[in-house]
């Protein structure tokens, strides 16, 4: 039995399925939902708001509000409580770093548009290759 499971979530349907799977497959484990807000990069995008904010941590938490609210709804549907965490950084690297503190990672197979996956790369693929703990990929 796993004691601690990390579930990285974004605003995709597959990340919601990953959380549902983790809650069902690991009924006694502590589940932590992690949302990573991209840090400053040459592509910037929505990370620009976080990078330029007076309080980047508060801005990141605000950015993650909808994802965390949805995670709480899913946990409530399963009559479970979850922990939540928001980090700023490169999603794949941050998830791999945080994974060291857990027994396993459960992640959705992909998210974002085709263009985002081609340019930024597939986060799930990177997690599978580099995670220090077992990874379950949910489709």
From TrEMBL:
It comes from the Archaea. Residues 1-139 form the UspA domain. It comes from Natronomonas salsuginis. CDD domains: USP-like. PANTHER family: STRESS RESPONSE PROTEIN NHAX, UNIVERSAL STRESS PROTEIN. InterPro entries: Rossmann-like_a/b/a_fold, Universal_stress_UspA, UspA. This is Universal stress protein. Gene3D superfamilies: HUPs (3.40.50.620). Belongs to the universal stress protein A family.
């Amino acid at each position: 039995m796993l004691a601690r499971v990390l579930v990285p979530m974004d605003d995709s349907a597959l990340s919601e399925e990953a959380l549902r799977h983790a809650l069902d497959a690991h009924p006694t484990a502590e589940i932590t939902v992690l949302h990573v807000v991209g840090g400053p990069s040459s592509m910037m995008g929505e990370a620009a708001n976080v990078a330029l904010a007076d309080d980047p941590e508060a801005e990141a938490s605000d950015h993650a509000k909808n994802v965390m609210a949805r995670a709480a709804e899913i946990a409530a549907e399963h009559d479970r409580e979850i922990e939540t965490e928001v980090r700023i950084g490169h999603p794949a690297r941050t998830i791999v770093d945080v994974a060291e503190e857990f027994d396993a990672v459960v992640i959705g197979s992909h998210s974002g548009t085709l263009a985002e996956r081609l340019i930024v790369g597939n986060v799930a693929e990177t997690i599978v290759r580099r995670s220090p703990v077992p990874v379950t990929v949910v489709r």
